[in-house]
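ERR on first pass: missing label on line 2. Operator R.T. fixed the label and resubmitted. Corrected input:
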Amino acid sequence: MQDTIKNLTERFGASNMIEKKPGLIFITIEQSKAISAVTYLRDIEGYTVLTLLTAVDWIEDNVFQLTYLLNNPEQITEIGLRVMIDREKAEMESAHHLWPNVEVYQRELKEMYGINFPGSPRIDENFILEGWNDKPPYRRDFDTKEYAENNFFPRPGRKTNDPAEYMKQKMYPNNPSDYTNKKYNPNR
Amino acid sequence: MEKSKLFTLNEDRSLYPEHDENGKPIVDLSSHKFLKIWQGPQHPGVTGNMSLELTVSGDEIVESKTHVGYLHRGFEKLMERRKYIQCFPTCIRMCVAEPDPNEYVLSNAIEELSGIEVPEMAKWLRTLVLEMARLQVLLRGVPGQAGTFALGLGYQWGNYLRDLILDSFEELTGGRVYHMYILPGGVRGLLPDGFKKRMEDKLKLIDEFMIKIDKLIFQNVVFESRARGLGYIPKEWVDVYGVYGPAARAAGVMRDVRKTNPYLKYSELDFEPYTTTDSDVFARTEVRYNDLKMTVDLIRQIMAKMPEKGDIKAETPNVMHWKIPKGETYSKCESSRGEYGMYMVSDGSDKPRRVNLKGPSYTHANALLDRLLINANIADTAAIMVSLATCPPEIER
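pass 2 clean. output:
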């Protein structure tokens, strides 16, 4: 694994390496060299399985972090490649030619984060959401609570009762003040 | 009856669509040679709601597209707005059938990020609970495979035994389906008195069930005729399509996190996951049947080897004010369907910055299923789907 890290650093300018536990490292690669590095890892270093591809929204730094987690089944090691892309121009080179599943990950990222992968098959088709016109929902600035309040509440027909008041009215519909006077009141 | 006579593919290939330069079939619906049908979201596969858009010629599938989204609840987003301990009730619902791996990967990710060492006793109990979870899934999953060919009896038997295991879960954790027994730092409690004895009685019933299931499924001519050769996955596809767990082991490729990256107490247990090379629906059912046998054996081993008493929880900060150090990790375990992992990123606050759950269904039910269904019969769709153990909530989360 040390040789792989050395090669990644020398050839692709990888930096900021962190070994999280034995057999799992995370390393940062520049956006322009990322797909070359993924291809190199798959074809030369034996990282033949793409475990996952996902994004993290660092809204305070105005970047998205794409994480390509690759697995080497022979050496039983994993490398997480972090790629920082501009949040304003959220676009990344597609890797659909490397694994057939990448197209699905990329469709999900387009829908949930608004990150575009030009050339990726079916990239504009809905993956999970249907007819969604709002901001991509997994971005940090999308507020789920506000969205729910604006779209789903208040629902007609739904009202809230204070349990004590409600019981008083049910039990003594004519004179609710009986509740405090009669023997039913344990605190009288 | 000759097996080949049961179902035969049409030899006249002129009926089938030509392919464009990208290998995609050119389907002209106006030619009346093809029909588009939707299988799902309710369907005979016992896996949850998911649709397949099938293009068929006669009863043979020429193209398939998976459509998900019927069970999307935005769990990952919801977890970003909750404290770590509040993530548990959300996280476990990502896979209804087998919630315990969710608890484990979430706890383990938190422990890895904050550097907590789990006590030995808690590790044994976690191993036991994960194996019990696998047992209850496979008790329904193995006969459920025969259920897709309308052999429903084994499924009823399996469900009865699964209920007995759920009783054990209730005894141990208070919950039948969702347990929340594994928490950051350890587990919630020790085994109740007499638990091992009652579990052993149930395992004996399962031993008898295994003999019956062998006769009912594997010696059944209908099952064998339909399952042999169906949904073949070449060995080379395992890495390319991201095939995990029993489906990879049926293709002759050893993929089992318990063996390759031993976690908890698996390195102290004696087991060898079953592999075969036929790689069809029959082989995958066989692998899961042997997994079920192995799980029964592992539970016996765990109960024999685990200590009676011990610390069950490491000291942790107050969970309502617990800030996890900045960092990222990937925590994984072996579920009944294959590698189950969680990628967690912390920004140093008391809520996760990002949680991404990756189950084997994500790859199995999308690109792989689309590919496997080409040239299959409509009636075999459910069988192929169930043999890959697809779980739609895991895809859309």
